[in-house]
Amino acid sequence: MAQRGSYAKGIAKREEILTTALDVIARNGYRRTSVKELADAVGLSQAGLLHYFSSKEELFQEVLRKRDEVDSASFGLEPESPIRSFVGVIRHNSEVPGLVQLYAQLSTEAADAEHPAHDFFVERYVQFRSTFGGMLREEQRAGRLDPELDVARVANLFLAAADGLQTQWMLDTSIDMADHIAYLWQLVARND
Question: What is the fold of 56-188?
């Protein structure tokens, strides 16, 4: 019985670490956040913090997974306007620059098949294309999108636009990422 309690406490501590890391990285940025700082923020040593993760890379990967989980809960697809949810996430990203930096850095590093986060990003892109593609198919059925559009390609283009805009925004914060994505939607959607 004690083992179950210990397991539950471990899961709770891991969640606390991830939630705290979201705040610290969003505020300080990826490059200016150390494992020591994260450990201090949750009352652990560096070794104690890494006890909950196999490596620093896994910690940061799990931070991004937690970010996706939080964003999904906060900006879940609105049945009447799913694109508004997507634009909401993009707008929110401008409020958490450190997490955008972490995502950009880790996704680039994960292009190497040997990187610990490689599978995470491959699966994340597959999931996004599937979810966004499903939303596009619903929009086609509702008559708000051209039925001839290749939804798989359009979903991939939206993902590429969002990632590319994040990179541009990190270099020039005057770029309104959400506005650009909303404009792209206007170009794709039927305006009958």
Answer: Tetracycline Repressor; domain 2 (1.10.357)
